[in-house]
Amino acid sequence: MNQSSKPSDYYGLETDLAFIAKEIKPLVSELQNKKILITGATGFFGKWLLLSLIYLNETEKLGVEIFALSRNPEKFLTKYKTHFESVSFIKGDISSFEFNKDLDFVIHAATDANIANHRSNPLESFSTIVDGTRNVLSMAKTCGVSRFLNISSGAVYGKQRSDVTHIPENYQIDYDFLSPSNSYAVGKRAAEFLVNAFGEVNNIHVSHARCFAFAGAFLPTDASFAIGNFVGDKLAGRDIKLTGDGSPLRSYMYAADLVIWLLTILFKGKEQEAYNVGSDYAVSIKAISQAVEAVFADQKIELEKSYESDNQYIPSIEKAKRELGLEVNYKFETTVRNYIEWSFNKGQGTL
Question: Rounded to an integer, what distance in angstroms lies between the CA atom of residue 18 and that of residue 169?
Answer without folding.
Answer: 31
